[in-house]
Amino acid sequence: MRKDTIVIREIEVKDNPKIAKAIREVLIEMGAPKVGTAYEDAALDCMTETYSDKKKAYFVVENGDDIIGGAGISPLDNHEGKVCELQKMYFMSEARGKGLGAEMMKTCLEFAKQAGFKQCYLETLPYMTDARKLYRKVGFKSLEKPMGNTGHYSCTVWMLKDL
């Protein structure tokens, strides 16, 4: 795979089944629980519709006809204030280690700022060490407890970044 053939862009309807499949494959590969994580989210099968509000966006990593990753921004569920959540950031194995995570973070956080959010929250699993390194590198700090209520009770690492 050549990096010059890879594009980060907003999701389109045709991408819905591809990104759902990619996210579920990554979660299985990582040994993530199927309950209490994004794996069981109904939104996975209708991402374009889920992220159609002006305060929401989902971006995919496209390589030719393949969707090899993605990430989104949405207001944090069950929380008041100008806090968004970085959601469903997953990359297929062939997309990892190429700097795409940093590019995706830049894209998502820029959208969040333009949408008027002041902080960005995320939840992850403790053994997703590479992801946590990236989050720390771009300025996310660990929290002692979760914010809002995302329903992802299996994700026990919570982080927040000022925008």
UniProtKB/TrEMBL annotation:
Listed Gene3D superfamilies: 3.40.630.30
Matches recorded under InterPro entries: Acyl_CoA_acyltransferase (IPR016181), GNAT_dom (IPR000182), NAT_camello-type (IPR050769)
Record carries keyword Transferase: yes
Top-rank taxon: Bacteria
Segments forming domain N-acetyltransferase: 6-163
The name this protein goes by in its record: GNAT family N-acetyltransferase
Keyword annotations of the record: Transferase
Pfam family for this entry, one: Acetyltransf_1
